[in-house]
Amino acid sequence: MYRYYKKYVPYLFILPAAVILVLFFFIPFIETVVLSFRDYSTNLYDPNFVGLDNYVSLLKSKEFYKVMWNTFLYVIGAVPILATVPLFLAILINQKIRCLNLYKILIYLPVIISIVVVAIAFKWLYATQGILNYFAELFKISPIDWLTSPDVAIWSVIIVTIYKGIGYYMMIYLSALIGAPKDLLEAAEVDGAGLIQKHLNVTIPYLMPTIALVVTVSTISALKVFAEIYVMTRGGPLDSTKTIVYYIYERAFENLDLSMASAASVVLLIIVMVFSALNILVFEKGKYEP
Q1: Distance (Å, whole) CA 264 – CA 272
Q2: pLDDT on residue 290
C-alpha cells in the first residue's frame, strides 16, 4: 500500500506552490485577458464584449507610444549598467582584500532598504534646494531641475533604480564566482596573462550564463518599474517619466478604465515573453548541444 502511494509523495510537496501559483498568477492572468476583450465604460457590472477594440484603441493612442518610449529609455539606461558594474565589483571583491565583509555590507545595504525610503531620500537630494544643487553651486554650476525637467527627470529616476540594484546583482555574480575554475585562472597566470586578460578570457566566459540571467532579470525589472516613479514624479513632468506599468496603474485605478489597463497588461506580458525568448536564443544557443 505504501509503495502505491509513494509515487504521489513528490506531488504533495509541489501542491502548496501550485495552489499559490493558480490563485495568485494563473487565475488573475486569465481574468486580465478576459477583461481586455470587454468594455466597462458603460456598465461596470455588465460589460460589453468588444473583441480586439481595446487593443486597436491602445495601438492608436499617442500616449501609449510615449510611455513605451519612456520604458525603452528606462531599459537602455539601467540594464547595461546593472549588467556590467556589479560584475566588475564582484570580481574586485572576490580578491583577497582587507575589510571584505564591510565592503559587501556597504554595497548590499541599499538592497535591503525599502524602495520607498530610497526614493524619498533621493527626492530630497534632487530638490531645487537639495544637497546635489548645493554642491553644484559650490562648483559654479547652475542648479539642475532633476525632477522637474522633462529631459532630465527620467535619468534621475534611473539612477535610483541603479543604486538600488547594484548590490543585488553583485551578490548574484559573487555566488557564481565561487565555482569559477581556479585551475584555468592559474594556468592563465602561468602563461603570462595579466589581471584584465585573465578575467576577460576565463572569468567572463565562465559567467556568461549568469550574465544572461542578470540581463534578463534586470530588463524585466526595468520594464515593470513603478515605485520609484510613483514616489518621485507621478509620471511627470509632461509624462516624461510615465512608463508602461505606471500607465496601467493610472488607467485602472485613477481613470477606472479596466479594459484599457488590461489590454496594456497583456501587451506588457507579450513584450516580456518575447524578450525572454530572445534571451534564450542569443545567450543560451548551443548550451545543450553536444
Answers
A1: 12
A2: 45
- Cα(197)–Cα(258) distance, rounded to whole angstroms? 54
Extract long-range pairs of 165-168: CB within 8 Å, 24+ residues apart. Answer: 165/78, 165/82, 165/86, 165/111, 165/218, 165/221, 166/82, 166/85, 166/86, 166/89, 166/107, 166/110, 167/86, 167/107, 167/108, 167/109, 167/110, 167/111, 168/86, 168/108, 168/111
CB atoms within 10 A of CB 19: 10
Q: Which three cell numbers stand for residue 207?
A: 559567467
Say how far apart CA 23 and CA 20 lie, in whole Å: 5
**CATH class, range 2-27+43-283:** mainly alpha
pLDDT at residue 288, as a whole number: 45
Q: If residue 164 lies in a helix (H) or strand (E), which one and from where to where?
A: helix 153-177
Q: How far apart are CA 48 and CA 284, in angstroms?
A: 44
Cell numbers for 66, please give them: 510615449
Distance CA 132, CA 122 (A): 10
For 1, 11, 27, 35, 264, the CA distances from 22, given in Å and listed in that order, are 31, 15, 6, 18, 22
Q: With 0.85 as the threshold, say if the pTM is over it.
A: yes
With contact defined as beta carbons under 8 Å apart, do 203 and 91 qualify? yes
In contact, 197 and 188? CB cutoff 8 Å: yes
Q: SS3 of 49, please?
A: strand
Residue with more model confidence, 41 or 35:
35
Q: What are phi and psi of 39, to 5 degrees?
A: -120, 115
Q: CA-CA distance, 146 to 241, in Å (whole number)?
A: 12
Summarize pLDDT for 57-90 with one digit per residue, the tens: 999 999 999 999 999 999 999 999 999 999 999 8
